[in-house]
Amino acid sequence: MPSATVFRRAFTDIYSRMKEKVVVGIGEVLWDELPDGKKLGGAPANFAYHVSQFGFDSMVVSAVGDDRSGAEIVELFGDKGLEGLLATVDYPTGSVAVKVDAAGVPEYDIKENVAWDHIPFSESLEALAARTCAVCFGTLAQRSEESRRTIMRFVDSIPASNNALVVFDVNLRQHYYSKKLIEESLRKCDVLKINDEELAVVSDIFGLPGGELSCTALKSEFGLKMLVLTCGTAGSYVYSDGGVSFQPTPVVEVADTVGAGDSFTAAFISAVLSGLSVGEAHEVAAATSAFVCTKYGAMPELPPHLKKRAGK
């Protein structure tokens, strides 16, 4: 049986705080092997880290191997104040070789059959689902049947009374997706986060015209509360029942764009949970993502003025 470890606070303490809600990132956790060194990566960890900076309890759900790389992730979680419900499984801890081009855009070589491909469901996960007020998942960790079942079961285990926001941040990587996987994920979520390149792929898969027409069609077809579209330097859009919000992308000196989309999602969801309007949440998300682009790696500490704008 795989073991599960919770960092920073003992799980018995978490049980004692059952009335408190938590924001969950579930899926891959790994090492990004960047040109300037190894950094903790994976969209769920990036998302949860930034959510925690806005004052919310957050949790990363994933798996690591019983190896040095896994132990280093545990240690770094502690250093960053990240909480994680991580299973230890008989597969190596995940890693990704990341090459960044001249424009700061990353290219990924993702190792296969690693720990996060084998995330088990457990009683601890079921208990966590009972406290979840928002969860974010993507396609990458669903490349394996075992982790896909766990992610979907976790989402299904969140009580309807929680009124939780279920966020599908598409995060298409290499060939690790299919029409069936995307469609099933869309039917589970309330909020779709997608970038312009991913929208083109998804539009082609579903036979949609592309652009704004695809956004409105996806929102309508799958009953989404919101669709968030990021378009790099061309700005970003949020489609909601209240209309369409647009934010220009702040002009900054880019170090790299690793994790920028995850920080956008984290800031937007945190702001919505804090009671901000869609437009206000969108503005905070754009500013947060732009700041992250000025730093190397996916998890820089946000400046106080950003934390205050969407803080709990």
Would you mind describing this structure in some detail?
The chain has eleven helices and 14 strands. The N and C termini lie far apart (37 Å). The chain is of the alpha/beta class and 312 residues long. The chain has a ten-stranded mixed sheet with strand order 1-6-5-2-9-10-11-12-13-14, with helices on both faces. A four-stranded mixed sheet has the order 4-3-7-8. Mean pLDDT is 91; it is low at 1-19. Helices cover 38% and strands 24% of the residues.
Give a concise summary.
The protein has 312 residues and is of the alpha/beta class. It has eleven helices and 14 strands.
Features:
alpha/beta, 14 strands, ten-stranded mixed beta sheet, single chain, disordered N terminus, about 40% helix, about 300 residues
